[in-house]
Amino acid sequence: MAIRAVIFDYGMVLSQPQDPTALNNILVITGLDRETFDQHYWTHRHTYDLGKLSGRTYWQQFAKDTGIELTPTDIERLVENDVLMWCTINEPMIAWAKSLADAGLRIGILSNMGEEILSYMRQEFAWLGDFHHHTWSCELGIAKPDPAIYIYTCEKLGVPPAEALFFDDKLENVEAARKVGLQALQFRNIEHLRHDLAAHGWLSGFPVPGEETENVASA
């Protein structure tokens, strides 16, 4: 069955890995080493992505769990740097998504996302308008790997799951997408993505990931 829509996760797919400057700022504010920070950072992240915590209450809970004291100013700075940590975009993937839309495919974003990061993205990222649909977990109150969020996204794009291709960096989210009928690949990098697309024969005849930036470089 032909692919009619391509759905992208945001974090680590359309964005780059954590911005090191913002991450360092967070470590300085909290006074934690990287290992301890990582142990606690994800504990309540899913709840935050569901919209059940705000940035402020997320960091208050983080402080309670780690036994550190944070002032209101500390929390404000943590929210700001947490946003910036996830907002360095993967420009070749953004360009590829647009080229797929220009070639006639529907494109969408399906992302677990807290409200503060989403607000910043909507303000700063004009390229969001290139996508036909966005699914943000904090607005729905459901998040990957809940099957409902994949079905919802396909419905909004107007395609059955079997005609949609989904990319996510987390294997559990890829496997959940496959269970509801989507074609899905774990994203690692553009080179690996090219290999996987060729191996499966998906998107044959459509633009190749990274092709746009390579053409610019060679011009």
Summarize the structure.
Strand 4, helix 11 and strand 5 form a beta-alpha-beta unit. Helices cover 55% and strands 11% of the residues.
Low-confidence stretches: 215-219
Taking Cα atoms only, what radius of gyration do you get, to the nearest Å?
18 Å
On the 0-100 scale, what is the average pLDDT?
Answer: 95
What distance lies between the first and last C-alpha atoms, to the nearest angstrom? 36 Å
Portion of residues in beta strands equals 5-15%
Query: CATH homologous superfamily of the largest domain?
Result: HAD superfamily/HAD-like
Biggest sheet, open or closed, and with what strands and sense? 5 strands, parallel
Q: Give the class from helix and strand content and strand pairing.
A: alpha/beta
Q: If you consult CATH, what is the topology of the largest domain?
A: Rossmann fold
The best one-word shape is elongated
What order do the helices and strands follow?
EHHHHHHHEHEHHEHEHH
The CATH class assignment of the largest domain is: Alpha Beta
Q: Determine the number of helices (DSSP H or I, runs of at least 4 residues).
A: 13
| Count of the domains | 2
The CATH architecture of the largest domain would be 3-Layer(aba) Sandwich
Range of helix content: 40-55%
Number of strands: 5
